[in-house]
From TrEMBL, chains A, B:
Record family assignment: Belongs to the histidinol dehydrogenase family.
EC code: 1.1.1.23
Organism: Dyella acidiphila
Pfam families: Histidinol_dh
Function per UniProt: Catalyzes the sequential NAD-dependent oxidations of L-histidinol to L-histidinaldehyde and then to L-histidine.
Keyword annotations of the record: Amino-acid biosynthesis, Histidine biosynthesis, Metal-binding, NAD, Oxidoreductase, Zinc
Name of protein: Histidinol dehydrogenase
Chain positions recorded as Zn(2+) binding sites: Q260, H263, D361, H420
InterPro entries hit by this protein: Ald_DH/histidinol_DH, Histidinol_DH_CS, Histidinol_DH_monofunct, Hstdl_DH
Active site annotation, chain numbering: E327 (proton acceptor), H328 (proton acceptor)
Cofactor note: Binds 1 zinc ion per subunit.
Length: 435, 435
């Protein structure tokens, strides 16, 4: 892990110290995805079968998972895992229901009622990757809020294994959280199928979920096409920033850094501390724990680009974090909650020694689909609101029009929009009022 | 206006009847905008001056509006218009404050606190077009929620006239609603400047506002670049769908259709009614009113592509509306509010005879920056939430970790993420618990 003393750096060096590996959209990737999307749009299911054979090395007969497959998956799954999935779903549901938007109504003038009503997005498409390992937790995080929002049709795509089946835990989770249909599709072709529809796959209004570079590029392309689909957010490799003080437990800090590093070789891991001693101890502890991990080789690659940053104070540590805008921020300091007010940009925050990031990945109740790559400066994680439309409504009675009609007419005149003005004046005249 | 009998149409004809003019991203437009963005990134302010001379035909000295210009604009403005701007701002503020997200906190298990906190997006960039006429109302709609959200730096770009000045009403509005800095920039170059920054223009985290095809393409390009900026939503030409019954006042209905049609030749105007007689009367009334309008020639072009759709019932009218997903939906029927529950996709709804769309454009209190082109199927209009990040927070005490640690460990094991599991078990072991 690279050691950095923040206060010896120039401004340019600080920017470099917090830089993520470039995510520039390579032309080759862009063209490859364009081609996949065009093929799926032109050839539908036939293209999906051919692309699944080429990329997922599986021969798909039916593209959609059928009831027998769901039942077999459930029967094979360990009872303990099923119980954990149900338990996690319940807590995710509890928090997401509490945080769901509510209808609003106010009178902004006498006779002028203005409201906001909520409607589910009709058809949503969820993407659950299954790269190095299947991710039932992502099915939880995407499916629970879709169910709370009341989306009429919830579709999920996840790549099949070479044997032509999806992961048991993903299938069980999909059924548990109310997903309506599951398709054995991965990669850019899954995104194309949900965005434009095929004979088997319904066309969805909005797509959700993480994925590799191909999936991310496909999501960007379909969201930029007026005839495509909306997306939750762009996605990049996962990342964590830990702020720890001299009293932090180095075993805990090292375990948290490693739980991020094991995601993939491109994961980002940063530790910021005012204590040189803590940085030293954690570095040694990371090496020790890493050697014991089954995915230690992956973690080592991520750690090679990760950083230990020494700062002057916890206040400065929070400044560094805000500048980086991490997906996950862990505060392992005395009085951790006191730092929270200063946190401006982060996907999700983990407060205190007893809150490892992994509880948020699975079952504290918050969502784990979060903005990466500095998108936390402007994006929020997935929530029930992501699956809803907020529609404004206004209703005026004659007194309301008398009250705000003149203001409307004045502003319309200033914008030289005479028909806008007349839509008010013809009504006021019908009420016997002339402006 | 084209007359259509919905129940004589095939499914394909229905789709065609509701089709918008294609908004496909033309390659020439895409390349033109790519070049403008590249020029602004490479040459900064110098590029902005050159592009403003070329496209806005003005010689910019300072790019930023200075205090003397703000003062002169305020001095020149009619007192009645200033009062209307202030009055509109107050109602917009009242509704947007009522609809703003609130912090949330729940315990999802004993010792497990999960919260959502709100933070303003630090730097936001607002775009206010000034094509055929300046649009101070857009400055209101973008500036008020930015102020409520508490964004630290609110930047606004609006093109200068040939005399090198921005519109007086736009400048006065910007100051009234708390915009911090205004730049005399329009088109794709304004979007590029705010997304990447120049010597004069600060780099913004998220960009807001409507614009022409160049502005929209530039917003799409910067939002697809990981080093660019987020955007509020894609934008297309403005549109209205009116549902009216036999008792609706044809003078009001015609005025509402025309207030949309006068926006531009590409505006979309649709009237849906179960009453053939009403469709006839409104068509005649539209012709009569249109002849009196200063922008009648523009409205006529929009009306040439607009539609009068006859349906069997009001229920079917709402189905047609949901399929179209209009930016603005006007309900001019007896018991208009009864139709509201059936409305699934619309930007903003105007209920009853006394609620012309123009009150929402200016001062009922709702926002007029709304999803067009069918985006109302998945997007919502601008609100305070658009200017905020919702950050989730979790804090466990030892009992909380004992409560949800086992579930976390089980799910981590299922995903073969051993380091995720150990981040829990090292802590439980420190508490004397072994899984």
């Amino acid at each position: 892990m690279k050691r950095i003393d923040w206060n010896t750096l120039t401004e340019a060096e600080r920017t470099a110290a917090l830089a993520r590996p470039a995510q520039a959209r390579a032309d080759s990737l862009r063209r490859g995805v364009e081609q996949i999307i065009a093929t799926v749009r032109a050839e539908g299911d036939a293209a999906l079968r051919e692309l699944s054979a080429r990329y997922d090395h599986c021969a798909l007969d039916a593209i959609e998972v059928n009831d027998a497959e769901f039942a077999a998956a459930e029967a094979r799954l360990a009872p303990e895992l099923k119980a954990a999935i149900r338990e996690a779903a319940a807590r995710i549901e509890a928090f997401h229901r509490a945080a769901a938007p509510q209808p609003v109504g106010v009178n902004t003038a006498v006779g002028v009622r203005v409201e906001r009503v909520l409607r589910p997005i009709h058809r949503v498409g969820l993407y659950v990757p299954a790269g190095t390992a299947p991710l039932p937790s992502t099915a939880l995080m995407l499916g629970v809020p879709a169910h709370i929002a009341g989306c009429r049709e919830v579709v999920l795509c996840s790549p099949a294994r070479a044997d032509g089946h999806c992961d048991d835990a993903v299938l069980f989770t999909a059924r548990t959280v109310g997903v309506h249909r599951v398709f054995k599709l991965g990669g850019a072709q899954a995104i194309a199928a949900m965005a434009y529809g095929t004979e088997s796959v319904p066309r969805c209004d909005k797509l959700f979920g993480p994925g590799n570079a191909w999936v991310t590029e496909a999501k960007l392309q379909v969201s930029g096409d007026p005839d495509g689909a909306a997306i939750d957010m762009p996605a990049g490799p996962s990342e964590v920033l830990v702020i720890a003080d001299a009293d932090a437990n180095p075993v805990f800090v090292a375990a948290d850094l490693l739980s991020q590093a094991e995601h993939g070789p491109d994961s980002q891991v940063i530790l910021v501390s005012p204590s040189a001693a803590l940085l030293d101890t954690v570095a040694a502890e990371v090496d020790r724990q890493c050697a014991e991990l089954p995915r230690g080789a992956i973690a080592e690659q991520a750690l090679a680009q990760s950083r230990l940053i020494q700062v002057q104070s916890l206040t400065q540590a929070v400044q560094v974090s805000n500048r980086y805008a991490p997906e996950h921020l862990i505060l392992q300091v005395n009085g951790a909650r006191d730092l929270l007010d200063g946190v401006e940009s982060a996907g999700s925050v983990f407060v205190g020694a007893w809150t490892p990031e992994s509880v948020g990945d699975y079952c504290s109740g918050s969502n784990h689909v979060l903005p990466t790559y500095g998108y936390a400066r402007s994006y929020s994680g997935v929530s029930v609101a992501s699956y809803q439309k907020q529609i404004t409504v206004q209703e005026l009675d004659p007194n309301g029009l008398r009250a705000i009609g003149p203001c409307t007419a004045t502003l319309a005149a200033a914008e030289q929009l005479e028909a806008h003005r007349r839509a008010v004046t013809v009504r006021l005249e019908a009420l016997g009022t002339r402006l």
